[in-house]
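LAB NOTEBOOK - FOLDING QUEUE
OPERATOR: T.R.
BATCH SIZE: 2
PURPOSE: Compare the predicted structure-token outputs for two unrelated chains run back to back under identical settings.
PRIORITY: normal
REVIEWER: second-year student, initials M.K.

ITEM 1
FIELD SEQUENCE / FIELD STRUCTURE:
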Amino acid sequence: MTEPLVSPLNPVPAAAPALPAHHRRWLLWLVAAQVLFVLGVAAAGYATAALGRSITLQTEPVDPRDLLYGDHLRLHYQISELPGSLWRGATLPRRKDAAYVLLEPQSPGDYAAVGIYPAAPATTGQQVVLRGSVQDVWRRGLRLRYGLERYYVPETMTRQMRHRRRLRVQISIAPWGQARITQVDTLGVVR
């Protein structure tokens, strides 16, 4: 009988060890957790649009084009910078603190801020609460961020955005505070 010739240049590949059963279970749980996380994020977005209250905010585009991200708008809302007199907390806010902005309808369809709270306040009637975070604090005001400051422009709207225009942004605010942009309409050229 002849044995197969094994040279140091061409070694016989070793068989890969099989994973123990408990490692396979953990691997399956990790994959399932990742899939559930992605599905949960998508479901939360759809639930925000379906279950949320729809409001309209006035805004202006800040930067209509970015070479890395394509056509998008950085939006600056009227409620992005608010006077410090609207703060209802016991202590002054600091950067990155949570802020809950109480909004009331001022004119048909448009909402304005009437208070800023460190925790979600109770609402009555047509009031809604928009969750954000404090970006800057200065002597007489606050700059807030809501996670709604970037909007990717569809191709049909790109030509309209070459000129800076005032915008009306419709957002949907879910009962748990998450918000999502549902529609953007142009109003006129900013002067």
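ITEM 2
FIELD SEQUENCE / FIELD STRUCTURE:
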Amino acid sequence: MALIDQITEGIKTAMKAKDKVTLGALRGIKKELIEANTAEGAGGDVSEESSMKILQKMVKQRKDAAAVFVEQGRADLAENETAEAEIIAKFLPEQITGAELEGLVSAIVEESGAQSMKEMGKVMGMASKELGGKADGKEIADLVKKILSTK
């Protein structure tokens, strides 16, 4: 089942259950996917990879907003943003973290032949292509910096 179809079914279910948080998150996803489909040059279809990037961006936005709300003492708003981030994350592939991610990033650094921080962009390009949607970009960048700084 295509992602947009899964979202549409989820919206129907959330409407029946009167789940406002889930409904808001799913409508947000559908809006972003439709905008990507109709964007100039998209050709009316968004690839799976592009869809995953859109979802990752949405999760990151929600988490960043929640952090700002917590900073400002608005736990009620932060809770809503966190709940939406969790709902959106359900549509992403299982995330790679910890030692497994470190091993994959190390392999990418070796494969790229990078020897210094000057080549971080090259490594990040390869890592983003290989790990796109499966790991947080900031976490990948931190690992690349750590590995390259020890060389």
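REVIEWER COMMENT (ITEM 2): DSSP finds seven helices and no strands in the chain.
FOLLOW-UP: none requested
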